[in-house]
């Protein structure tokens, strides 16, 4: 990193962060006066990007999805840009000091023993959110995820029962994948699988699974789950799990799950798939966060207004929208345009020559696709129910891996939009 350059630091190398980096390098930095004086610095805890929605299938076995598409090395994706315009820092942001405009990063190299403090001219926070189960996301780095998958897989052949807490898409998809893999699927006209080898139970607090979809679609999902040996317990909340750490620290532990009504369930494996925790631990000033821990982000401009000039947030970490990839995509050009505007103004351009802010608006229509094993699925897009075949075609076939080639390489952002 050249000391004299103005750094546009992006923290988080996934859907939000990688897309922003490509967009800035293609459409923003080249249009700035003295463009060589800027450098996009991408900081990420992992040096590879993961197709995260694929975790419910990928966690079972490396044979189920092509590994070279599931994990992709980040630095190589940016070789296409002029030398000096981009730099990758493999490390974890540990402290943001927004008044002095610096971020401290614990470097992955050397086993995390050294820290670098970098100052930023502009900052994009794209650190996403962690899942309670370490099997379902890149909560740390790739090695950590692979270690957890290995522990879980080792236990699988002998299990007789699995409890999954959470009736959202992550819980339902994981139940469907495990059900089909371990039990197989009942015939098309059977209402449920008789005598499944492994009893898989989804426990949900809601009156139905998949609360983002209408009840009729949720019922269809329940039917598909029953066909792979999955039972759903509704209106039941998990109150406690013993031993402590089962399903989180120890993904292969047997667990006793106590529900709110006092009932207890025993399981050979327990997977918590309830809610997510925003990755904002490095933001010491809690006034920059909203009550649920996400970054307090202007829902229209994507600026973090309280953090000083040229600070933005995007993706699951931002308070802007629901956590979903399809809501990040339309936000990227808005973010790019507003960063460009701010940088041009800071470079001395006049207000009238740089145009107005662009505004983001969350699309709140019913949109969610939930594969249930390899051959079935439920969902809706823009308010229209999708047939099982369409869910398979779009998502269930390979859990979006067909989309990530263009996304990670930046081709998706070839045009300024
Ligand atoms: C099981 C599952 C299935 C899903 N399926 C779908 C789906 O089908 N469709 C859909 O639209 N959405 C889906 N989602 C949601 C989707 O995955 C998220 O919306 C998306 O991953 C958010 O991207 P992001 O870039 O904001 O953050 P993330 O993908 O969470 O990535 C954040 C990145 O930041 C890094 N990071 C975190 N903290 C730090 C730090 N302090 N310093 C440096 N780096 C850090 C992380 O390692 C990670 O690489 C699914 C989510 C899960 C868990």
From TrEMBL:
Residues 7-320 form the FAD/NAD(P)-binding domain. It holds the Pfam family Pyr_redox_2. The keyword Heme does not apply. The keyword Transport does not apply. It comes from the Eukaryota. Keywords: FAD, Flavoprotein, Oxidoreductase. GO terms for molecular function: electron-transferring-flavoprotein dehydrogenase activity; flavin adenine dinucleotide binding. GO terms for cellular component: cytoplasm. Belongs to the FAD-dependent oxidoreductase family. This is FAD/NAD(P)-binding domain-containing protein.
